[in-house]
Write a structure and sequence with these properties.
34% of the residues lie in helices and 17% in strands. With 140 residues, it is α/β, with parallel strands linked by helices. It has a three-stranded parallel sheet, with helices on one face.
Length: 140
Amino acid sequence: MIEITNQSGIGRGIYNWNNFNETEKEIRKKLSSNNAHINMLCACAFHHEGKNKYKIKNHSWRKPNPGMIEEATNIFNINIDKSWIIGDNISDLKAGINAGIKGGILYNNSDKSFMPKNHFILKYANKNQDLKWLLEEFKL
C-alpha cells in the first residue's frame, strides 16, 4: 500500500512535520493490528498559500497532480493499469486519473457529482465492509 497525502497545514504553518509523524505512527499501529502496512509514504506540504519554501502554486506532487503517484510507480514498478486510489476528496481521484490509474473509490464523501471523462472506474464506499471486493480483486 502506498499512502499519498496533501499536507497543506504543514506548508501553511498550522502544524509541523513532528505532529504529522505522530499521527502517522498511530495510523501504522492500527494498520499493523490488522496485518496491513504502508510500503511508501509521500506527503506534500507545498501549497499556494504556503510559507517560505512551501509556497509553490502548482507543485507536481500536490494532488490533483500525479507526482506522488508517479514517484511511487517508478520506485515500486507498479502496474498502474491494475491500481486503485482511495480518497475522501475528489482531488484524490483526479490525481489517480492524471496518473492513469484504473479506478478510484471516493470514501466517506457524499458528493456524487463527479463524473470522470475517461475509462476511470469510479466507486463509492462509506465503511470498510464496502471495500471487501477490492481485497478480492487483489486476492488479499
